Amino acid sequence: MSTKHMPNMDKMGGDDVETIVGPSVRVEGDFVSQGNIVIEGQVSGSIKTEKNLRVEQGAKIAANVTADSALIAGEVKGNIKAMNTLELTPSARVDGDVEVKTLIIAAGAALNGRCIMGGDAGLNGAKTRVKSGSYEDNNLISKES
Amino acid sequence: MKTTISSAKNPNVSVRTARRVAQSAARIVSARNEIASIRELVRTARPHLAEVANARNNAYLYLYDSFVRESPHKDVMRIVEKRFVDFGLSGKVIRITPFTNCRSLIEDELRYGVKTVVVVGNNETVAKVMSRAADLDVVFGLIAVGKKDNELAESLGIPLNEEACNTLAARKIELVDYGVINNQRFFLTSIHIQNARLRITCDNTFVVKADKENVELAVSNLLPSSVQGMTKGFLHPQDGKLEVIIRPQVSGVLSGLFNRRAYSKPSVFPFRRLLVSAARPFVMTADGRETQESSVEITVAPKKLKMIVGKERRF
Questions:
Q1: With helix as H, strand as E and coil as C, how does chain B read?
Q2: Looking at the predicted complex, does its ipTM rise above 0.85?
Q3: Owning domain of residue A94
């Protein structure tokens, strides 16, 4: 399986992570960062970062999200805009519109909202990949894994 | 009787005139010898003149803590002061006490041309000086004396004791951030608030809450956070921001039973302005000094502090 379009979340730990919202913490307001963000708690308002966002399992976000790339494993109630890649893991629950260039949805993830894809590549170049299926431009082909 | 002089060998020139010419020639020769010796003197003195000019340009003020003159540090200080002379770093020495107003002292010396203030002591000495004087337009250096309580020197890459003189002589200057507390005093290393029910507002844009639990809060700049589990990877004293680390206390049966505090995973937020308030006063430790506060505003002065640092610094 090609990993070319997956957000590089391996480096999000230690020195490279700039902001961490821990599991027992609630953040209310407009949350803006220039670096990576990891959310394990609750955030309401808006979230904006120029780099990567990771929403861990158990995290709850009631906010619009803007990031370069995002990995969602928790709950998001709001619109998500990712300049590059958005990945939804099996535990992800997204209630809102999604605007992204490359979308990766794992089996079991829930997405309730509109999905707008394209960006620089344009609609014709949009790529969607289903983890349990095969990869085709603009076509979803699901297969049993 | 007047005579005309055509040359020194002219037999018509009087003896008196010839004597006058010979005296002039001798004066010319001696003047030439003198000029040659002065040139030689200037040539040999030039390196020393450069040192003196350097010392004058970087005129040093040394602030000694009281413990550095006591044993077991006396021998170290003897070597340190000898190196000050050898490296051309000599300057005025002032001993500071807990009652010394370091800010007015440094301001007075600035009028006399001091360009570099060197703190001779340990972390506590630096805190004493910097808490009131960090915003002054002067270069700060550090001679860390002793083996304990010198973590700041380690962060700055400055060796301990007499080896610090080499770093001082190399004069590598970096601009670092420092923190401002309530627009009144400054901190360089870290702030720590232990177990208080706090309301935390970052950059006037978002609020951090930990429900009804007490939190432990730390702000780090030049020293790693005192919050357990946080790595020194969050040291960025030149990014124009400070980092606040918040760790909510978790109450549980076991923690009450064994009277031990349990904490949940810490959160980290970079900020330029932080407002910390609480319904009840809390104890805040800034650079090792404790105060009681009910509301604290912490801002960053980005890259405003000029510090002499070493090669092994942690940033």
A1: CCCCCCCCCCCCCCHHHHHHHHHHHHHHHHHHHHHHHHHHHHHHHHHHHHHHHHHHHCCEEEEECHHHHCCCCHHHHHHHHHHHHHCCCCEEEEECCCCCCHHHHHHHHHHCCCCEEEEEECHHHHHHHHHHHCCCCCEEEEEECCCCCCHHHHHHCCCEHHHHHHHHHHCEEEEEEEEEECCCEEECCEEEEEEECCEEEECCCEEEECCCCCEEEEEECCCCCCCCCCCHHHCCCCCCCEEEEEEEEECCHHHHHCCCCEECCCEEEEECEEEEEEEEEEEEEECCEEEEEEEEEEEEEEEEEEEEECCCCCC
A2: no
A3: 12-139
